[in-house]
Amino acid sequence: MINFAEDLAYWYLRFNGFFLLRNFVLHRVDQVEGKRARGAADFDLLAIRFPYVYEKIGGQKNDWDCKQFEDWGIEIDKFHLAFIVEVTSGKNVNLKEKYPYERLEQAIWRFGIFPKDEVSCIVKILYQKKKYIKEPWVIAKLAVTERNIQGPWLNLLLDDADKFIQERIKAYSYRKYSDRVYFPDALIQYLAWKKNNR
């Protein structure tokens, strides 16, 4: 089920040039020797971005949140990006449970970036780190949270996502307002309407 926090994460990434898949279901993995079987779960978002993204309205270099990506050590105009995204608005969160090895493996298989026989080695590295780089790709785990939570993932605060979205809507308020009904969810339609009516 999509909630407001997932919508904020979705629009933050979308306004930064990503293509997104919501609620990627990870079907139950049958028990394998030495591994415990897990029930079905999902990743909130899978996101892909290419370096040459361009749109006349809201899709130019100064429209991206370059500072945030620089803080993460990512050059968005150089790399192809694939993010495995978990979103939470709660205060008591155990993010380590959100990125188990088997689920990372399934997500990377789904991206289809690397041959299946390379994925296991990639996951071994990504499981321990925030991101895996094999040019031209950066594969990263992104946690979108209410407060900063340290760990082997990139972290984006919900407040920062909200602020970025508000600024983008403000920068193109006339366009976003007139086109608001074409956006696929009520939250962004409301934000575009609200910004224009202030």
Task: Describe the protein in words.
- There is one protein chain.
- With 198 residues, the chain is of the alpha/beta class.
- It has one domain.
- The protein is built from seven helices and six strands.
- Strands 1, 2, 3, 4, 5 and 6 form a six-stranded mixed beta sheet that branches.
- The radius of gyration is 17 Å and the shape is globular.
- The model has no long low-confidence stretch (mean pLDDT 85).
List keywords for this structure.
198 residues; alpha/beta; six-stranded mixed sheet; 7 helices; 6 strands; 21% strand
Structural class: alpha/beta
SS element count, helices: 7
Mean pLDDT: 85
Radius of gyration: 17 Å
Report the span from N to C terminus: 31 Å
Largest sheet: 6 strands, mixed
Order of helices and strands: HEEHEHHEEEHHH
Number of strands: 6
Low-confidence stretches: none
Q: How much helix is in the residues?
A: 25-40%
Q: Per DSSP, what share of the residues sits in E-state strands of 2 or more residues?
A: 15-25%
Shape summary: globular
Q: How many structural domains are formed by the residues? A: 1
